[in-house]
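Quick question, first post here. What does this chain look like in 3D?
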Amino acid sequence: MKTNDLAKASMVILFAASTSFGAGFGLYQGSAAGNADSTYGTAKGGEPGSMYLNPAAITTVPGTQIQLGLITVAPGITYEGNSVYTREKLSQDAEDNIWPIPHAYVTHQMGDDLWLGLGMYTRFGLGAEYDEDWFGRYNIYDVSIKSFNIGPMVAWKAADWISLSAGLSVQYFDITLKQKIDAAGLSGMRKANDPAFSPLDVDQDLCADGVGVGVDLGVMMTPVEKVNIGVGYHSQIKQDLDGEAKYAKPAPIAAAVPMLFNNTDISGEVTLPDLVMSAITYDVTDKLTVGLGLTYTAWSTYDELRIKFDSLGAVGMKEKASEKDWDDAFRYAAGMTYKLDDAITLRASYTYDESPMNDSHLDYIVPGDNRHIMAVGAGYAMEDWVFDVFYFYEIVEDQEIAMNVPAGIQPSEAVDGFAHSLGFSVTRKF
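> Answer (accepted):
Ran it through. Tokens below.
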């Protein structure tokens, strides 16, 4: 795929950005129950938010139901490195932020075998914020990428043991990327992208947005008693982005090269990869269900970042590209759901999330490596209301980052990556 340099930031979240929530820039959770145990939602459904995992799951939701919720994420990571030129020890922590991520779903049963659903959610996202003078500022110092999906769907219960579904996913995409340009280095006044302070740094602010459409498909089966299988397919979505590049340049640079670093329109493409979410569960007892989940993300389509400038005066070039060469990746999950009684449900899961990034093309935009996620949750049903909560802790494996001076990368390592996530969903049955 071809994408613009704006996508360096990766892609984020519903109305806000966070440092890290999934390997690459994927998000795989859409409700409190789904965050606590995605295997149950994919293979057995049981709540409106299960459509995020598998659209066919809405055939398990009787009548009309509305679900609203909020997920919060508090991430963190540290970069440690050495200056290419002085071997000076360097260190930078990501800004401490708590980011809200809302979700909403509506399901309606039309008859004995037909359901309609509508979901509002996000599937991809990442953001980061660092000091403007940190050693990786020539690669990135701030990114905010906001995405919002609306997905109408229809599901058919073809038989007692199988359900099928299809729908659309309309996605709005908005990206802001901020980085510094080493004007002193470009002019030969000093070595290029030296992390030492420079009063001649030019501030570059890239903003763009677009709307794309994809397809969602799903199947849910009970081939034998106590065994449930679910598969949800979410197609790639191509975004044609248009926006603006804005520059703030110190007076000496403005005087010396007035023809460069001037505001201009920009354009490019971003294609988000296909997702296949699958799970199998087994009802050990009437109360206990255990499951295994596997998610495939076709990250290999993400091989290049490209941006086109309408004006040559922006940075002295009409087009800029960087190679990414990501690999397809898998996400492995094991979950458990236990119905304590008619009112209370307990959930727990572990997830291992593979990083798709190629070691030879790492940067500071996507922090860390593979991820380990431990989650717990609980639900409480009261007449026509259901309240769900969850908490998970994410550990991000350390990652060595090779020197890439043209891209503003110093020899460094991403360490101590983590994320706390807490959220809830409220469901009303009609």
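The first helix runs from residue 32 to 36.
Residues 5-195+275-297+326-429 form a domain with the Porin fold (CATH 2.40.160.60).
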